[in-house]
Amino acid sequence: MTQIIVEALEITKQRGIINKGWGGLGNSKFCFFLVAEPKDFIYLLDNCPHDWLFLQCKAVVHHGGAGTTAAGLKAACPTAIVPFFGDQPFWGERVNARGVGPPPIPIDEFTLLKLVDAINFMLEPKVKERAVELAKAMENEDGVTGAVKAFFKHLPCKKPEPEPEPVASSFLSISKCFGCY
C-alpha cells in the first residue's frame, strides 16, 4: 500500500505526509526503504492530531473513521476514503455524495490508478470550493444543542406502566420462566 501511495504522489506531482499510525504503513518494507533513501516529496509522520495536521493539507486520503472524516471536512480538505470496515464505507459514500471527495476505494480494490484518479479529483477547484462551503456549515453547527434535541426527541413522553410485582412462587418457577406456562 505504501508503494502505491508513493507512486501516486509521484505521478500527480504532489507532496504527501504518510501517517504511519497503527495501520501498518510504517511497518512495510517499502517504508523502511523510504527511511534509508528518503523522497523529498514524502514525509513519514508518527501520530499527530488530525485537527492540526489537516489544516496544513491540500487534500486528505484516509480510512474514513467518523472522527478523521470530520477533522478533514472541518479543515476544508477534499477527502478520499479507503474504507476497511465498520462505518467507514458509509462516510466514504457521504463524502462522495456531498461532492467533496471521489467514490470510496475499498481496501481490497485499492490500486495505483484509482488513487491517482482520486487525487486528481480532489485537486479540482470545484471540489475545494464545496469543501470550503461544507467546512463553513460545520463551523456554524451547535453539536451539543443538536445532540440534546435528538436525545429528547427520542425520549418517551409518557412513563411506561409499572410492571406488576412478581409473585414469589412464579418468580422461582422454571416452567413459568421466560413467559413459558
Automatic annotation (TrEMBL):
Keywords: Transferase. It holds the Pfam family EryCIII-like_C. GO terms for molecular function: sterol 3-beta-glucosyltransferase activity. InterPro entries: EryCIII-like_C, Glycosyltransferase_28, UDP_glucos_trans. The keyword Transferase applies. SUPFAM superfamilies: UDP-Glycosyltransferase/glycogen phosphorylase (SSF53756). This is Erythromycin biosynthesis protein CIII-like C-terminal domain-containing protein. It comes from Fagus sylvatica (Beechnut). The lineage of its organism: Eukaryota, Viridiplantae, Streptophyta, Embryophyta, Tracheophyta.
